[in-house]
Specification:
Blueprint (H helix, E strand, L loop, with lengths): L2 E5 L13 H12 L3 E5 L9
Parallel strand pairs: 1-2
Length: 49
């Protein structure tokens, strides 16, 4: 099993809109193959040391 992390704040999930069908299908395919799709978002603290 592999974990796939997705940036959802405007990348995978456009602001104010539902996720595109292609993204939903891609994540479903990952799940069917036994992998996990993990949503996430970037904050300013993520890049600081």
């Amino acid at each position: 099993m592999l974990d796939f992390f997705f940036d959802i704040d405007g990348t995978l999930l456009p602001f104010g809109k539902p996720a595109p069908d292609s993204a939903v299908k891609a994540i479903a395919m990952l799940k069917e193959e036994g992998h996990r799709g993990i949503p996430g978002y970037w904050t300013e603290s993520c890049g600081s040391a």
